[in-house]
Design goal:
This protein is an alpha+beta fold and 139 residues long. It has helices at residues 19-36, 68-77, 91-95, 99-106, 125-132; strands spanning 8-14, 45-46, 52-53, 63-66, 85-90, 116-123. The protein has a four-stranded mixed sheet, with helices on both faces. The radius of gyration is 16 Å and the shape is globular. It starts with 7 loop residues before the first strand and ends in a 7-residue tail after the last helix.
C-alpha cells in the first residue's frame, strides 16, 4: 500500500506516558509513515563542501498531546476521511516482545478497545486539522 496525498502529517501522543516511551512511539510511527507515504522524503542535498546529506521529510511534522480517549476518537473518526492515512501505535505494540506476540494480542482486541498511545495522521491539511486541530503541542 502506498499513500500519496499528504501535505501534512501530525503525530498525537498520549501525554501521560513517559517521555522516552513517547519518543519511541513517534520514531516507530515515523518509520511506518515514511514507508507508506510517497514523496514525504525530500531529495538528498549537498552542503557547501559538496558532501551529500540524505533527504529528510519535506512536510511539517508537528507533535501534539492528547489523552487515550482523544487518540481512540481520532482513529475511529478517521474512517470518515478516506484520503487520510492513520498509523497507530498501541500499548500492546510497545509491551510485546516480538511482532508475532503483537499481532496475536492485537487480534483479540477491537479497534475501540485498543490502548492507543500514539498515532500519525497524514493527508490534506484540512482533513488533518479537522481530526487533530484542537489538540495542544506536545511540550
Amino acid at each position: 500500500m502506498s499513500f500519496s496525498n499528504a501535505d501534512k502529517c501530525t503525530f498525537v501522543v498520549d501525554g501521560d506516558i513517559a517521555t522516552g516511551l513517547a519518543m519511541n512511539a513517534v520514531a516507530a510511527l515515523s518509520l511506518s509513515v515514511g514507508h507508506l507515504t510517497e514523496g514525504i522524503i525530500g531529495e538528498d542535498v549537498k552542503d557547501a563542501d559538496g558532501v551529500s546529506h540524505h533527504g529528510i521529510t519535506s512536510i511539517p511534522l508537528p507533535i501534539l498531546r492528547g489523552d487515550r480517549a482523544a487518540l481512540r476518537d481520532i482513529v475511529l473518526k478517521s474512517a470518515e476521511f478516506p484520503d487520510v492515512l492513520v498509523v497507530d501505535f498501541t500499548e500492546v505494540a510497545q509491551s510485546s516482545r516480538s511482532y508475532d506476540e503483537y499481532t496475536d494480542r492485537t487480534s483479540r482486541v477491537t479497534a475501540a478497545e485498543l490502548p492507543y498511545i500514539a498515532i500519525a495522521v497524514c493527508g490534506g491539511k484540512s482533513a488533518v486539522n479537522k481530526l487533530t486541530g484542537s489538540l495542544p503541542l506536545y511540550r
